[in-house]
Write a structure and sequence with these properties.
The protein is mainly alpha-helical. The chain has one domain: Aminoglycoside phosphotransferase (APH), C-terminal lobe (Aminoglycoside 3'-phosphotransferase, Chain: A, domain 2, Alpha-Beta Complex), CATH 3.90.1200. 46% of the residues lie in helices and 11% in strands. It contains six helices and four strands. The protein has a two-stranded antiparallel ribbon with strand order 1-4. It has a two-stranded antiparallel sheet with strand order 2-3. Strand 2 and strand 3 form a beta hairpin. Helix 2 runs antiparallel to helix 3, helix 3 runs antiparallel to helix 6 and helix 4 packs antiparallel against helix 5. The two termini are 22 Å apart.
Length: 149
């Protein structure tokens, strides 16, 4: 799966018409929170102590400059890839595709492999992708994911 994501991230972002960089993401989430479209009931356990408003405030504290813009899948999880012979041969659920920091995908993908396959796969995923863990960016994009889901 990590190799499939790395291949997806090799798409030239200059040709992608969809923008999901931090300013756009924050605006989107702010509208959802203000409209009551986000519920803490759907938050992952690590965010269960937050309500949508405090989660959005925390998100603002985590924001950093985006450092590696790529075309992101937006929901890169095991159910959203097609595998054949141990390699990714197709991508599903591209409704959230857009240019963003690669950690938007990495944070969710590593979270998801743990949910789907068990503990210990996050490190293997990052190693296979070829990037060291960035806990700050991981936390930022996981909280963003909870707020937009």
């Amino acid at each position: 799966m990590a190799n499939g994501l790395r291949s997806f991230h090799e798409i030239d972002p200059a040709g992608c018409p969809f923008d999901y960089q931090i300013p756009v993401a924050l605006e989107h989430v702010a509208r959802r929170v203000a409209a009551g479209g986000t519920s803490a009931d759907g938050f992952h356990d690590v965010h269960r102590d937050l309500d949508p408003t405090s989660a959005f405030e925390r998100l603002g504290e985590l924001v950093v400059d985006e450092h590696r813009l790529v075309v992101c899948h937006g929901d890169y999880t095991p159910p959203n890839v097609l595998l054949e012979g141990g390699r990714v041969v197709g991508y599903l659920d591209l409704g959230e595709v857009g240019v963003a920091d690669r950690w938007r995908d990495l944070a969710v993908a590593t979270w998801s492999v743990t949910w789907n396959f068990g503990a210990g796969y996050e490190d293997l995923f990052l190693h296979s992708y070829g990037v060291p863990l960035d806990p700050h960016r991981r936390d930022l994009y996981r909280l963003l994911y909870d707020l937009e889901s």
